[in-house]
Amino acid sequence: LLVFLGLALPGTQGREIPRCEMVRILRRNGFEGFMGTTVADWMCLVKYESGYNTKAYNNNGPSRDYGIFQINSKYWCNDGRTAGAKDACHISCSRLLNDNIEDDIQCAKKIAREARGLTPWYGWKNHCRGRNLSSFTRGC
What we know:
Strand content: 5-15%
Number of domains: 1
InterPro entries: Glyco_hydro_22, Glyco_hydro_22_CS, Glyco_hydro_22_lys, Lysozyme-like_dom_sf
CATH class: Mainly Alpha
Shape: globular
Organism: Machaerirhynchus nigripectus
Distance between the termini: 40 Å
Helix content: 25-40%
Order of helices and strands: HHHEEEHH
Protein name: lysozyme
Radius of gyration: 15 Å
GO molecular function: lysozyme activity
Enzyme class: hydrolase
């Protein structure tokens, strides 16, 4: 039983995607130049929103943020608890908490497309916008 619990616990903490692996994922999924952004913008966003953790979760009071891109339950996903939720990405918020980030990527791109950039993410606005972000992709 203890061995099983030891194997199960790391999964509950989420996977922190290594920096260069995340750069490769973003490049492969067309984030460079997407809506006028760079992979470095997205890397900075992910660092300050979730710390590269696929199971990041933040309670904002009336709504919650889910996953590596911290996608909000009021507008983008359905957690079954947020009053007046829009669910614009047509996805269960719980699906944003697994290690497969393909659906997270599609929703994040939809958010950026509708906002014409990254302004919906406070982590990006407060820590990344207008800064030299080359260190986020250097060496990858």
